[in-house]
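The methods section describes the discrete structure representation at length, but only in general terms. The central task, working out the structure tokens from the amino acid sequence alone, is never made concrete. Nothing conveys this as quickly as seeing an actual entry. For illustration, here is how one protein appears when written out as sequence plus structure tokens:
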Amino acid sequence: MASPTIFVIIGGGLAGAKAVEALRDSGFDGRLVLFADEEQLPYERPPLSKEYLAGKKSLTDFTVQNADWYRDHNVDLRLGSRVSSLNPAEHTVAPPDGATEKYEKLLLATGSASRRPPIPGSDAGAVHYLRTYDDAVALNAVLTEGSSLAVVGAGWIGLEVAAAARQRGVDVTVVETAKQPLAAALGETVGEVFANLHRDHGVDLRLEAQVEEITTTDGHATGLKMRDGSTVAADAVLVAVGAKPNVELAEQAGLSMGDGGVLVDASLRTSDPDIYAVGDIAAAEHPLFGGRIRTEHWANALKQPAVAAAGMLGRPGEYAELPYFFTDQYDLGMEYVGHAPSFERVVFRGDVAGREFVAFWLDGDNRVLAGMNVNIWDVLDDVKVLIRSRTPVDPDKLADPQSPLADLVG
């Protein structure tokens, strides 16, 4: 009898879980091995900084599948098992126990780790990072009413934690090197909306501020010392300055790298025809934008695995979804769709001060590159049509709530 086909997935997050789901749903009946670094069953990460810290969800609420599902679908799930090496020539991976595992097709879904800047004191007690469930448990324990938290970095994680902390009665200071929060993701104009939001909710937001060191007493963080000589006293510190894609295995294997990740085509195949990559690490060719896009967004982890699974099974597939992410902070709910690493202008439609509006990022030809709906929930599909059309729009009509978005596509 022929040996069974063996597919291996490395990465126990949402992307890894969705990959094994897609393979089984597509009729793959060979051996399926999923390696997960953490001891927990694969889970979604966005709730860690949102609903979990707000006390609205527990781990089981955002666990992708329960243990019975993996057993019933004959998935060899290796929890707490970090793959230490990958040998494409031999088609093998090596887990910690030293026993190699052969594969015919391999999917890398290794995700990201928190960036750890070389700030003195960053390894002290009460200094937190947020990437895993264990991180969230530790952070959750210190967000007690009347305590104080210093957050280094005003990106998505930093601001979401700040919002959760304020709603729990914690005094929060956020320090950021840029002129506005989220400037790298949204630009300064839209970043100001989030600056006002957090200040309105009592956050001490310090912009264009450089951290000199995390101050400590007896190995325990006591706050921040800033480069201008000012200080921030805090019972705990969260360092939230971005993520670093886990590409070590891909680099070791000699896969083509670039754009901050693993280079893959639109089918999510790497330079090795038997290896695919999805999620945070995948710098993927995008058929609409005519270049590569690597984003650390939940939507990629959710949707890319089905395309990669098709490729692993020898079927055609192309990932053409628009980048998408969302956030919930205080009474502000937002969805962002599109891709605007550079843009000419931002057009607002609606009540910006009242935080009920849509923002559009336009290029020099007045084509919509991206859109963000804030507390307005019936426009996302129209925004997607505008982006995909690649058609110049009239900025004045775009800004006019009385002009239907559907009528702006030529």
About this structure: Residues 298-312 form the longest helix (15 residues).
